[in-house]
């Protein structure tokens, strides 16, 4: 299966495509002033997300719309999807938490309010938090995510608190489609349903987007890809939001597990495959800078993207802490300056002074040793490795392609999901692998290895990293650039 | 008459922010309506505000103790699928 429809010129893929790439930072098509603004924002700059951290404070529990992918029972600590939090904070608690995190994690540059409801449906709590942060922690960038229903009303206030970035979730422009995503909204003191509700919501989202752009606020648009509902419509959304001045579009896959109890989850609405998601992102990238490293964080996430250190900063743990913020701010400045300097040094054309980083996927049954067959792996653990350093990034699930069944799809097609899930990796470690997948991985610029089967993961990562380095396969940090 | 809040409430504050009579407060485990203050928004709004924004079916009860939002009325999830949802089983097979 081809990722995108064939064209006269070779299709752009991965980091060659507009708006992606760890080297070009995904924002290549944007004006320098915008790149400057987002260079230390982990959610907007793909390069920054390896080095800078973010946090969300859950001060906004109320919502004014219902989405079919959301369940408002949001106190489950075992879930890691947006809209889920463990404890709702008052603005005062939020300020304490932000200061505690800022002091402990000096590379935390960004504070967002993203729920678990809609921040603009909680205007007092949200803006009280922003107002105090803009005064007490002036070195932290402020962000807000919203469904957009009340954006026109609050655009001026957002601009006032120096909130540089706003994310609006826009899933469709067509109210008929909207009616299949949003069962109701609360508007003008009434609950409104169906197409009428979607029409009001979409109108306000687009108007709000325009108003923010007029006021110099950077706007990113999030869309949830829902197969059979809005997937064929999102390229049009991309064009429309770009026309109105959004600088980045983030198409995210629907999360719809039955146990989450959402409408889509319990009615069996499927999520898109990796391949479908990537194909859609490609088609949208013709009109718009796309974001591809989103981790769909919880509304109380803390730390680097893909990690959550929220448990280190629960209310009981921060209650007794007294933070000397001016001292913390000075340290933060030094740390962040050093990161930006090293990023500037590492920038092409002739990088390679600091040891290059590799992203390595590991197939492992128990997470201790490299003991899983590539074709049997249901997930891969992704590690970021450089000389002598390894950091776990995340686990990525893949569909089982090798079931031993005779109705196996064509090989090319079977591996599409794996290739998509591992596209940004330099290599993959497994205990065994078939020759077909081996060749396909190599063609995609991903180096497979079963040489370190049954070795402890840390040791295997170090040795494999050395191999890749010595073979000159880490001169660029992204495989698809090296081979395309 | 006065509304009341059941133990299905998820403490989202939406009703508290809207109540024109200041009848709603945060209790120990969930929000609570002061029956002496609640007017069901008579004289303020055409629709009771808490009932217009509450996202949880069965969380708000009318003066007779009946759910203002019965199963399926807000989420669109058919009541037949609710049990399945609770047990965490995919329900695709139940769909047409």
TrEMBL record, chain A:
PROSITE patterns (UniProt xref): MOAA_NIFB_PQQE, RADICAL_SAM
Gene3D superfamilies: Aldolase class I (3.20.20.70), Dinitrogenase iron-molybdenum cofactor biosynthesis domain (3.30.420.130)
Annotated metabolic or biological route of this protein: Cofactor biosynthesis; Fe-Mo cofactor biosynthesis
InterPro entries, alphabetized: Aldolase_TIM (IPR013785), Di-Nase_FeMo-co_biosynth (IPR003731), DiNase_FeMo-co_biosyn_sf (IPR036105), MoaA_NifB_PqqE_Fe-S-bd_CS (IPR000385), Nase_CF_NifB (IPR005980), NifB_C (IPR034165), rSAM (IPR007197), rSAM_sf (IPR058240)
Protein name per UniProt: FeMo cofactor biosynthesis protein NifB
Reported cofactor(s): [4Fe-4S] cluster
Ranges for domain Radical SAM core: 49-300
A GO molecular function held by the record: metal ion binding
Automatic annotation (TrEMBL), chain B:
Keywords of this entry: 4Fe-4S, Electron transport, Iron, Iron-sulfur, Metal-binding, Transport
Keyword Glycosyltransferase attributed: no
Cofactors required: [4Fe-4S] cluster
4Fe-4S among keywords: yes
Example GO molecular function: 4 iron, 4 sulfur cluster binding
Domain of life assignment: Bacteria
InterPro entries recorded: 4Fe4S_Fe-S-bd, 4Fe4S_Fe_S_CS
UniProt-listed Gene3D superfamilies: 3.30.70.20
Residue stretches making up the 4Fe-4S ferredoxin-type domain: 1-29
A Pfam family annotated for this UniProt entry: Fer4_10
Protein name listed in UniProt: Ferredoxin
